[in-house]
Amino acid sequence: MALGKRKKILYFMVIFYISIIAVILFGFISGLMETGEQLISFLPIGSSLLEYMVVIFLFYPLSMLIGCLIGQYVMVPLYILIHKKIIGRKMEYGVCIKPKENDYKTKYDFFIPSLIAVSFALLLTNNLTNSLIDLFLVRGNPDEGNTILNVFFISLIITLLIAMFMYSPVWYFLDSKIVYSNQTKVENLRDPIEIRSVGNWYRTFLRGYAGIGLVVAYLEFLLISYSKSSGDIGQQIFSLIFIIPFPIIIAFFGLPVILFLEITKKKE
What we know:
elongated, mainly alpha, three-stranded antiparallel sheet
């Protein structure tokens, strides 16, 4: 990637972070957000607002980066083995060669792993609420909506790492142009010869975790959580404006990871 493109990512990342900080400051100054006392057990800062800022600005990107790096080293050979065992027994594998003079770019689609992380976080929150409260929070009532939302947002630290661990090999396969063909399988058949991408096969499979069912489950989760919440109506409306699109917003916290991957990526 050209230096100019990297600068664009950096500028967009700065604008995104400044925008989020501006929204938080507006909510704090207008009284729509409270600083509160210590809430997160592993962050003894003394202010729930500052603790949440550390979670979303530091822990989310860090979890995504760690999951990405581990996934590309650990899961790539495992994914190849799984693919060969499931559908590749009579397939031929190879690398698609393209003209080197062209400037090819890797498309880091962070929306899919972000939605996968939300799906896993919902699963954890709905089934392990009490255990996660004891693990993450210094206080909280499992029957209170705000506590449930706190558990969900903090559990994303774990599920973002898992989602990136699962999904990052897709980028490696696409960037490496690894493909498979049924040429040997259909050699004596009338079926046509097909060449497909291993990366696209896994991307299609993993998209199943980020389908319309997730949207319905997330909105249902918010409806139940806010029906149990107590507090100022203005604060609830302000938080909803931020929380409803949050599964999409999470993807933009992957911008530092994109910048890191592009800087460290070896040229072919």
